[in-house]
Specification:
The complex is a heterodimer of chains A (214) and B (469).
Chain A (H helix, E strand, L loop, with lengths): L2 H4 L14 H12 L19 H14 L3 E6 L2 E6 L41 H8 L5 E4 L4 E4 L15 E2 L4 E7 L2 E6 L4 E6 L6 E2 L4 E7 L1
Antiparallel strand pairs in A: 1-2, 3-10, 4-6, 4-9, 5-8, 6-7, 8-10
Chain B lengths: L8 E4 L3 H14 L2 E7 L6 H5 L2 E6 L10 H10 L4 E3 L9 H9 L3 E2 L4 H8 L1 H10 L15 H11 L3 E5 L9 E3 L2 H19 L4 E5 L5 E9 L5 E13 L2 E7 L6 H18 L3 E9 L5 E7 L6 H8 L3 H9 L16 E8 L11 E2 L2 E3 L6 E5 L6 E2 L6 E9 L2 H14 L1 E3 L5 H8 L2 H5 L6 H8 L18
Parallel strand pairs in B: 1-2, 1-4, 2-3, 4-5
Antiparallel strand pairs in B: 6-7, 6-8, 9-10, 9-12, 10-11, 11-14, 12-13, 14-19, 15-18, 16-20, 17-19
Helix pairs in contact in B: 4-5, 7-8, 12-13
C-alpha cells in the first residue's frame, strides 16, 4: 500500500487521523490557492499520476472502511473524496425533463427527413430558462456530474439568490465518480438566477447560475 | 463468468455513423440508449435518436470523446449497464476497459489484458507465433542495436521494413533495400515512433512489394466458443486509410479461407479472446498469408461481412457481453453473394482536402440490395473537428459484377451538395478495368491516381503495408 493511501482519515470509525501536521499545513495551503478553478480534472495521461491498482485500492479502502473523508496528494495529483455525505443515491435515474415524442422519419424514403426534437438531456430546461437571461453572466458546469448546492446535506447553501460572489467564491459542488469538485464563480457579482435543483444531474456546459456582474 | 444478464441500457462512447449504427441494433433489441456528445455535436443524428443524451465536453476529442472521467460520470448518472466504444476513440484503450470494470460497467469488447496484449505489436506477434499463426519473418523483439538489425535483416532477406512497435498508420516506418541504409532507417523510424506513440521501440520484418490486405472477422463468446465470419478484401487504401472494401475477396479460395479462418480462431482461443475482432493478414504474391495485426473492436467495414453472412455483428457483441453463448457453430456460418462498401468522406475527391460545412441537398440511394450507414441529414453542418467519414454506401448482390453495377447505380443516386465528397472518386474506381478484374494489391490506389490525373499519394510510404483503420 502506498504511503499516500496511509494518510486516509475517517470520521466514522473515530480513528485518529494518521496525517501528521505537515499534511494539514499542505491542505491549508491548497485551500489558500484560489488562483484557479478548483475542480479536479484528470490529466490526459493519467498513467503518470495514478495507476489502476492504486485506484482500485483507493475505492476498496473507502468502501471497506466506511470512510467519509479522504485526501491524497502525490506527484502533483490531488484527490479529495467525500462519501455518504448525501446518503446513497437512489437507484432510479435522476429527475429529467419528461419524454418528448418526436416524429419518426418516414422509413424507406429516398430523402432522409431531419429529426425534429431533441431527446431528454440534463440541460434542456436550464438552457430554456437561461436563454431568456441574455444580460446575465452564466456560470456553467465544466463537467458531467451531480449538482449540490451545499457542502453537505445539513449545511447552508454555498450561495442563494442575492448572494454576492467573488471570482474565488465556491458556488456549488459537482460530484463525479464519487469525487466532489468545488466550482468557483470566476466572476464578481450578484446571484440572480439558479437554474438547477439540488441533486440534479448536470452535463458539460449546462447553465447553473445567472450572475449580474459588477 | 457470471450467468447471462440482459442489458437495460447501453451508453455509446462514440459519435457519427457508428454511434447511429449501434443505436439501431439497440432499438431492435429493446435496449435503452444513452448518447454522449461534445457541444458542437448537439445536433448530430446519434443524439437525436438515442433515448437519452448528455453533453460531455467541448469540441476537442481529448476533452469529450476521449474524456474518460466525463464518460464514466455520464454512465453512472444514467445508470447504464454497459458501454459500447464503437471504433476509434477509446475502443482499444485497455485503460478505459479497466476503469469500466472497476466501476462495474460492462465494456462491450474483450478483456483489458487481451486489448493490451494485441495493442502492442511486438507482443502481439509473439503471441501469434506461439499460437501457430504465420507471421512475416521478422525480429521477435524490438531491435536494440544496428548490428542486431543487420544480422536479422540478412536472415529475413532484403527488402525489409522497420516498423514502430506501438504504432501504425504509416508513421515510424521505413523501407530498407540494403544493409547500408539500415542504421539510418532504424534511427529515424525510432525517433518518429517516439514522437508519435511515446515508444521508440522498432522491429523489422520482411517487406512485400505488392501485397494484398485481407482480414478475417471473428466472433468469440465468453465461454470459449469462437467462429470466423469469412474475410474482407481491404487492399484499396490511401496512406493506410481504407477507401473501399468488399466481401468475399475476389482472389479467395475456399481452402485458403479455411486456413486463414482456422488460424484466426486458434489464435483467439489461445489468447482468451471474446467479442468481435478482426485479424489483418498480408498476402504475398504467392498467396501465402502472414499476420499483420489484430483489431480488438468492431471495424468500420463490418457491414460487408454482415451482408454476405446475414449476421448483425453489433447484436452479437451485445449478446456476448451479456454473457450469452454464441449460439451457433462454424458449420452454421454461410456466405451469400458479394458485398462492396464505399467510404464516403467529406473531402475533395482529387486533393483529399477536408470539406466540412453545411449540407444543402441530400438524397440517399435506396432500392434492392443497398444499405447506407450515415449520420448526416439535409441542413446538417459537418463539423471540422473529427474524421471526415460521413457515410458508408454498402451494396449486396448475387455476384461481384452485379455488385459493382449496383454500387455504380447507388453512387449516382447519392446526391450530397454543399460540401465536397469522395463520391466521384468511388464512381471512377467502379469503372476502372483493373478494379473490375479483381486482381489488385495495396499499390492499386497509387497507380490508379497517377493514371487518373488526381494527386497521387506519391511518397514512398504509400507503398507500405501496416495498420490501416
Amino acid at each position: 500500500m502506498s504511503a499516500g493511501i496511509k494518510r486516509a482519515m475517517s470520521d466514522q470509525d473515530n480513528q485518529q487521523p494518521e496525517a501528521d501536521s505537515s499534511a494539514t499545513t499542505r491542505s491549508a495551503e491548497r485551500h489558500r490557492d484560489r488562483g484557479r478553478r478548483r475542480h479536479r480534472q484528470l490529466p490526459r495521461h493519467l498513467e503518470a499520476s495514478i495507476n489502476m491498482d492504486e485506484l482500485r485500492e483507493l475505492v476498496g479502502l473507502i468502501n471497506d472502511n466506511g470512510l467519509t473523508d479522504f485526501e491524497l496528494e502525490r506527484e502533483g495529483f490531488h484527490v479529495k473524496i467525500g462519501r455518504n455525505l448525501y446518503g446513497e443515491r437512489p437507484a432510479t435515474a435522476p429527475v429529467l425533463p419528461p419524454i418528448e415524442h418526436h416524429a419518426i422519419p418516414a422509413a424507406g424514403s429516398a430523402v432522409q427527413s431531419k429529426p425534429t426534437a431533441t431527446p431528454p438531456h440534463p440541460g434542456a430546461h436550464a438552457e430554456e430558462a437561461a436563454s431568456e437571461d441574455q444580460d446575465l453572466h452564466l456560470i456553467t458546469s465544466p463537467i458531467v456530474g451531480t449538482f449540490y448546492r451545499s457542502p453537505s446535506p445539513t449545511a447552508e447553501s454555498f450561495v442563494r439568490i442575492g448572494s454576492h460572489v467573488e471570482p474565488s467564491t465556491v458556488v456549488c459542488i459537482i460530484e463525479a465518480m464519487k469525487l466532489m469538485n468545488e466550482i468557483q464563480a470566476e466572476t464578481s457579482g450578484e446571484v440572480v438566477k439558479i437554474y438547477v435543483e439540488n441533486g440534479q444531474a448536470v452535463e458539460f456546459g449546462q447553465p447553473l447560475y445567472g450572475i449580474r456582474q459588477t | 463468468m457470471n450467468g447471462p444478464r440482459r442489458f437495460r441500457k447501453i451508453l455509446i462512447a462514440n459519435r457519427g455513423e457508428i454511434a447511429c449504427r449501434i443505436i439501431w441494433t439497440c432499438k431492435e433489441m429493446g435496449i435503452g440508449t444513452v448518447a454522449v456528445h461534445s457541444d458542437v455535436d448537439r445536433d448530430s443524428l446519434h443524439v437525436r435518436f438515442a433515448d437519452e443524451s448528455v453533453c460531455i465536453g467541448p469540441a476537442p476529442s481529448a476533452q469529450s470523446y476521449l474524456n474518460i472521467p466525463a464518460i464514466i460520470s455520464a454512465a453512472e448518472i444514467f445508470n447504464v449497464d454497459a458501454i459500447h466504444p464503437g471504433y476509434g476513440f477509446l475502443a482499444e484503450s485497455a485503460y478505459f476497459a479497466e476503469i469500466c470494470e472497476a466501476c462495474n460497467i460492462k465494456f462491450i469488447g474483450p478483456r483489458p489484458n487481451v486489448i493490451q496484449l494485441m495493442g502492442e505489436k511486438v507482443e502481439a506477434r509473439r503471441a501469434m507465433a506461439a499460437a501457430g499463426v504465420p507471421i512475416l519473418p521478422g525480429s521477435p523483439d524490438a531491435i536494440t542495436s544496428e548490428e542486431e538489425g543487420i544480422r536479422l535483416a540478412r536472415e529475413i532477406g532484403f527488402p525489409v521494413i522497420v516498423k514502430a512497435s506501438a504504432g501504425g498508420g504509416g508513421r515510424g516506418m521505413r523501407v530498407v533495400h540494403s544493409e547500408g541504409e539500415l542504421g539510418h532507417a532504424l534511427e529515424t523510424a525510432s525517433t518518429e515512433a517516439a514522437a508519435a506513440f511515446k515508444s521508440g521501440d522498432v522491429y523489422i520484418e520482411r517487406f512485400v512489394e505488392r501485397p494484398r490486405h485481407i482480414e478475417i472477422q471473428v466472433l468469440a463468446d465468453e465461454h470459449g466458443e469462437c467462429v470466423y465470419l469469412g474475410e474482407r478484401e481491404c487492399s484499396i487504401q490511401r496512406r493506410h486509410q481504407k477507401l473501399l472494401e468488399e466481401a468475399p475477396s475476389p482472389m479467395m479460395t475456399p481452402e485458403l479461407r479455411q486456413q486463414m479462418g482456422e488460424a484466426a480462431v486458434a489464435a483467439c482461443k489461445s489468447i482468451g479472446y471474446s467479442s468481435a475482432g478482426t485479424f489483418e493478414f498480408l498476402l504475398d504474391e504467392d498467396q501465402r498469408f502472414y499476420f499483420m495485426e489484430m483489431n480488438t473492436r468492431i471495424q468500420v467495414e463490418h457491414p460487408v461481412t454482415e451482408m454476405v453472412t446475414l449476421t448483425d455483428i453489433v447484436r452479437n457483441q451485445i449478446r456476448i457481453a451479456e454473457g450469452e453463448p454464441l449460439g451457433f457453430t462454424q458449420d452454421d456460418v454461410i456466405m451469400v453473394g458479394h458485398s462492396i462498401e464505399c467510404r464516403i468522406n467529406a473531402e475533395n475527391p482529387e486533393t483529399f482536402v477536408p470539406s466540412p460545412g453545411k449540407i444543402t441537398t441530400f438524397n440517399l440511394p435506396g432500392g434492392p440490395g443497398v444499405r447506407v450507414d450515415t449520420y448526416v441529414y439535409p441542413e446538417y453542418r459537418v463539423p471540422p473537428f473529427y474524421d471526415s467519414l460521413i457515410a458508408k454506401v454498402v451494396v449486396h448482390a448475387r455476384t461481384r459484377d452485379l455488385a459493382i453495377a449496383r454500387m455504380r447505380r447507388a453512387l449516382e443516386a447519392m446526391v450530397i451538395e454543399g460540401i465536397s465528397t469522395t463520391i466521384p472518386l468511388h464512381l471512377k474506381i467502379m469503372n476502372d478495368p483493373v478494379y473490375q478484374a479483381g486482381n489488385f494489391s495495396t499499390r492499386f490506389l497509387e497507380d490508379f491516381l497517377s493514371h487518373n490525373g488526381g494527386r497521387s499519394s506519391g511518397t514512398a510510404s504509400a507503398a507500405l503495408t501496416g495498420a490501416a483503420v
